[in-house]
User: Fold this.
Amino acid sequence: MSRTDIEAVEEVNTAFYEAMERGDFDALSALWLEDEISCVHPGWPVLSGRGEVLRSYALIMSHTDYIQFFLTDTKVAVIGDTALVTCTENILSGGPAEDGGELGPLVGQLVVATNVFRRTSEGWRLWSHHGSPVLTESEDEDEDDAS
Assistant:
């Protein structure tokens, strides 16, 4: 039985996040198209072209000692040679400790993401990634609501 397009896209989408978790820049680079690509990291401007996009991932990886993605609400749609994946990235990350010791404190973050893939002769490849932070109410606002 052959894999469906949806299964193939899910596999590549998972490989993208696993490469980030491992800090495997070569594997991450291989998942992107060779031509015009774009990326928006939360709070960043639009990055265009392979050079800018891959430099951003090299920078993020070099400043992140630990990152783990728990994907929820994942939806995949395939139309012809284009696939759209939307998901919520539940991110747990940590950087170096202040005094160079063990891993610094872990920080949780919610990001909603859209990943667009194109079918190529080598399989599905990322065309665009867009992540936006999910704004949540602060604890102070919750306390005000209770009174």
Remarks:
- The chain has four helices and six strands.
- The first strand starts at residue 38 and ends at 40.
